[in-house]
């Protein structure tokens, strides 16, 4: 908890549920990422938290932006970002969104299929494009499935096709999965990417960009390797695979920029023992899976939860959201413990909720509004 | 598809994703429920779709309302509902919400724990309360887990406690799970509830209310028993369990009132074969799990999807949402088929999406706004 967040929480000047983000911590994380990977351009993954104060602060620090939609691109432009610093990173885009981005001056686009390439050729002629590879995401707490990416062979063919369509085949990308705690995933992926560079050089195409994606982990309840470990492992793999002819490197951190800069405050709505659940204690909060904590699905992301000021021993608790929906249960199996004295009206903190919380919140499930947001 | 919805879709006067609801169909469903269970008061489960035009129409038809939150209660009052016709049905409520409801004149409250009862005694003195039983939900496509309800023995003790706290012990409720396709679940649950009535009569407490909950199924891809079958089975069970001294009956339908009155229109963003997924065809829509189709989690609710005007054979397809999130995949295993000619820019219809869609939609995940809503 940063001092600024602690002061805000002490002030009590907010209704729950609320999410507060310390912009100085955002800036510090950005600096730490730059220090760990000085050779890589940082494209902040806007989807992690697109709030204007965050985009403003990052734009001021010289960050670039990875956008998932035309709405996110508009938000970056509103924050003063140069369109030339925005990557349209979703490989699945409406043609109208591509056209609008292109009109705004966005030059860099992701793709992973021939169908997307055709849309790009039509709506963003002459744009720089990079092809997303499908790589192993083993080790990621929030993997991205087979929804994105293609094989190295197919990527090579598509990048040739891109040139033939009048686009600029600019590079390749991959994503090792979100909250990826292993550095090993990068080695294989970078080697795969390098093969595409080599193959294409033989075909007269000089790729420039290696987009290393995001997924850098932050500490929730368990320790993770520090960002320096990732920086070193990535650079060693890049040198091993590319020798002296290093490509332009790009990373797309989101969680690692804003995750631990935020804290959620929630009120306990009910705490009681459930005879029908073997006497287990259930704690119902005023934020749940549909109020922003969507990444608790399958108990994938395990947030640190504390109840400051509540004395007494901690006992096992199932932790659920406030809605009438039975799937709105955050933790049953992970083994959370909360003070046995916790009762309705008490406040709990859900830590490291700066990323992937506010935007997941439903617009009004069961009538509950999204959490209030505070940027400090 | 109702003629009114068909005309609306033909008009093209909307952007996608959109959800359109035929209010006449809502009224017809309300009438059908009343005809199937004429002895039960209908409390529309507002959480299914709280849009003002729906609440207005239902209030005009004499519907009562089951609300999950104070925000839903305010919406009902704004639609002209008499506070005496509103049940605050969430067993997990903030004390401030109870107090506000009580001030507005709401008289009927659910609970299932001693802790909630204490809040009700304090914030809604003299209110009518009913205790939710935990019953088997086997047969439900969207069960409500162990999050709610208690045993018949505990319910009996709690209802006595309610009287001692100055509340009016008014009855019991249960919920057999949402999209419950079996009528058998009601028989056991009603017998359990009747035992509580009998036990309490011996203790000098005359319960009046049997709240049968909601969960009545609608036809998605598979046939379900008609509502008449549920009505007959429920009334037979009630008569068997209560004899001639029938309690006041209450049902809380949501899906059965608005589900098949709505249709979602979505644009195909990308359709392509995924070599990395064994050559499977993926179709990416501009609505997904975080754009409202949350009940596709685990492929639980299997919507009927059609692509009118697209000719050609249907072939297997994985169906995914537009976001960069790997879990934003709606159907992989259910065996959906879509026309092989389907391509980016084409429109598909997702049928029977009037319930549990609009409110689940995230406020802006990946920058995508919630679907536009149209009430006809």
TrEMBL record, chains A, B:
Catalytic activity, as annotated: L-ornithine + H(+) = putrescine + CO2
Orn/DAP/Arg decarboxylase 2 N-terminal domain sequence ranges: 24-258
Keyword vocabulary terms for this entry: Lyase, Pyridoxal phosphate
Lineage top rank: taxon: Bacteria
UniProt EC number: 4.1.1.17
UniProt family annotation: Belongs to the Orn/Lys/Arg decarboxylase class-II family.
Name of the protein described by the UniProt record: ornithine decarboxylase
Annotated source species: Acidiphilium iwatense
